[in-house]
Amino acid sequence: DVVEDGVSGVLVDPHDVEGIAEATAGLLNERDMAERMGQAARERAGELLFTPEEFAARTSALVDSAVQRR
Fold this sequence. Notes:
The chain is mainly alpha-helical. The protein contains three helices and no strands.
């Protein structure tokens, strides 16, 4: 997963309006926690981002794999 709950963000059911409001308020009230989560999220995103060449190679491998399974 991209977001680790409580580490690189807060996971809330998208239909839980009260939960979203509580999570947002919590982050607004706990600036240090929000900054730590933001830093962790940036580090995690850096692990997931690829150069265009890497993206093309991974996409090509995925397509090749799908075609071979047919």
